[in-house]
Design goal:
Elements: H1 2-47, E1 53-57, E2 60-65, H2 74-89, E3 99-103, E4 107-112, E5 115-121, H3 122-127, H4 132-153, H5 156-194, E6 202-204, E7 207-210, H6 212-245, H7 250-304, H8 317-336, H9 346-362, H10 364-379, E8 387-390, E9 393-400, E10 404-408, E11 414-418, H11 419-424, E12 427-429, E13 439-448, H12 453-465, E14 477-483, E15 487-496, H13 502-520
Antiparallel strand pairs: 1-2, 3-4, 4-5, 6-7, 8-9, 8-12, 9-10, 10-11, 13-15, 14-15
Helix pairs in contact: 2-4, 5-6, 6-7, 7-8, 12-13
């Protein structure tokens, strides 16, 4: 009876323990699932920003490592795994069946005999969206296949075969270089035979740019340059083929190819990415081009006199257009600048600043001349064809530029005067009022007091009226400018519309004055004359005197004293 009671009590206790244990097991399973879900969510968030590090072994990238474990980063783990696999490949007794998977509580290890190669953790599997067992099996197969393939490639039979192929490549390259050399030498010899026939030199109008020898030398140099470029390209293309035959030099082959492909790829991508900005620049250039054409049309209309603007002269049209054109182009460059390639680079900005400083300091004098040229244009001090005097230089304006003004003197000398000098000097314009009001030409003669002044006035006026290019209206007039000790100064003033022919007018006027005075018997005895004329011949030329003219005798007078 006691035994039965004990058995019942034991059963009751065990039932109570089982009843309490089942909820606890459920709680543990729920906690494990929640932890795994939390770990997976954490890994998913890390996967977006985590960089995988390649396991590089056997001259190739086998797989990537993402997870960090303790103090070992992903890079450290990848480097360690790569070294172990490289050491494994040096063992030519390797058998893929010797690779084993050993399961631990936290990892699955890939081992070869007693040597650990890779430890696969749950985080490694989660980073690659797989299970730990599947990832370990996948990595095992990758390692086994890679080691076997590498050993096959580096076997003596394979190396012998690859060496023969490399020798064949070298022979082909030598043959190609020989053929290229023969072809280009034939071209040079062919050109030598054509010298003087087809190769006669290059002429532009009457100017001989190149003679036959120079043309042949230029073409032969160009042919040699093309030959060497082709040879270099053939050699460069052969090198990746040779290096690619051997597994331990395959990296060099890839680098040589990338040296060419990477710049071409960057150039292609750069051009493609720049297409939108290039189209924008084209649109802006077209818009500004038509804006400039509109301003040019306005300039032409104003110059022709079809379009008149009050207070705006026709000769202002071209300089104003040039100013507007420069400002428009400057504004266009400012708008286009952000779309130009490399505009944000420090080098581009540095060069721009340097050029700006260089232009500022190097063109200080030029800028002053430019500003002076603009001021002179709008001052309308003179125009092309005017007879002017600038400082001590007199001549006709035949060219006005933004920097200098050029004159042609009466001796046909060309004088270039900087615009800043023109601004700082006084300017006489003889032509500005000549066509409308006439330019007054004037000259002064000094006649003694013994000649009647009315006669002198009339002689001067008659001499002026007989002078070519002197206007009859307004009539010439005479001014007595001074009464000196020995003579009177008479200045004849006459109008002319030919301001550019003053030298001829003055020469003719002076000749006519002499003729009229000599005919009238009035002597021009300036600056002095002697009052005692008895016994002295007149100063009038013999052509104007009578044939029987005799110099007067000395007159004497006697006085008797009382």
């Amino acid at each position: 009876m006691k035994a039965i009671n004990r058995l019942l009590l034991l059963s009751l206790f065990l039932g109570i323990q089982i009843a309490y244990a089942q909820p606890r097991a459920k709680v543990r399973r729920v906690d494990t699932v929640a932890a795994e879900a939390h770990l997976k969510a954490h890994v998913d968030s890390l996967r977006k920003n985590t960089k995988g590090y390649p396991v590089e072994a056997l001259h190739d990238t086998l797989f990537y490592v993402y997870a960090k474990l303790g103090s070992f980063t992903a890079r450290v783990r990848a480097d360690a795994i790569g070294k172990r696999i490289d050491n494994l490949a040096d063992n030519y007794a390797f058998s893929p069946d010797s690779l084993k998977l050993t399961t631990d509580e936290a990892t699955i290890d890939i081992v070869y005999k007693d040597e650990l190669l890779v430890s696969v953790f749950d985080q490694d599997a989660l980073f690659q969206n797989t299970t730990r067992e599947a990832l370990a099996l996948k990595l095992k197969n990758i390692i086994a296949k890679s080691v076997v393939d590498y050993q096959l490639k580096t076997g003596w039979k394979t190396l012998l075969k690859e060496s023969l192929l490399a020798l064949s490549v070298i022979l082909v390259v030598i043959l190609l270089i020989y053929l290229i050399n023969r072809v280009f030498n034939w071209l040079i010899n062919k050109g030598l035979s054509l010298k003087g026939k087809s190769l006669k030199g290059i002429k532009i109008n009457n100017y001989e740019v190149l003679n036959a020898d120079q043309e042949f030398n230029l073409l032969s140099s160009l042919v040699k340059l093309i030959k060497w470029v082709i040879v270099i390209v053939v050699v460069y293309l052969a090198l990746p083929v040779m290096f690619g035959l051997f597994p331990f030099t395959k990296d060099i082959s890839n680098q040589l190819i990338n040296y060419v492909l990477s710049p071409l790829k960057k150039i292609g991508l750069g051009i493609w990415n720049y297409v939108p900005n290039f189209i924008t620049i084209l649109v802006l250039v077209v818009i500004f081009r038509y804006v400039l054409r509109f301003f040019g049309y306005l300039k032409t209309e104003i110059e022709k006199g079809v379009l008149t603007i009050p207070g705006f002269y026709a000769d202002w049209a071209n300089p104003t257009y040039q100013i507007v054109r420069v400002l428009t182009l400057a504004f266009m460059l400012i708008v286009i600048f952000p779309y130009m390639p490399g505009s944000d680079s420090p080098i581009f900005k540095g060069v721009s600043v340097f050029m700006g400083v260089l232009f500022t300091f190097g063109s200080a004098g030029a800028l002053s001349n430019i500003v002076a040229g603009l001021v002179l244009t709008y001052m309308r001090a003179f125009k092309i064809g005017d007879r002017v005097q600038i400082g001590d230089v007199t001549g006709d304006i035949f060219e006005k530029t933004i920097l200098v003004t050029r004159l042609r003197t009466i001796q046909n000398e060309i004088v270039s005067i900087p615009n800043s000098t023109v601004m700082s000097s006084h300017t006489k314009n003889f032509s500005s009022e000549a066509l409308e009001k006439g330019l007054i030409v004037h000259t002064t003669v000094t006649i003694g007091y013994d000649a009647p002044w009315r006669q002198v006035h009339q002689l001067l006026i008659d001499a002026a009226l007989d002078t070519p290019m002197i206007e009859k209206e307004p009539a010439p007039y005479v001014l007595q400018t001074s009464l000196d000790d020995y003579y009177v100064s008479y200045r004849i003033n006459a109008h002319t519309k030919e301001a550019n022919k003053q030298a001829r007018i003055y020469s003719a006027l002076h000749a006519n004055i002499q003729d009229h005075f000599n005919k009238a018997g009035v002597e021009i005895m300036s600056p002095h004359y002697k009052a005692l004329r008895d016994g002295n011949a007149t100063s009038i030329p013999n052509d104007y005197l009578d044939k029987d003219y005799v110099a007067p005798a000395f007159q004497t007078q006697q006085r008797k004293e009382q």
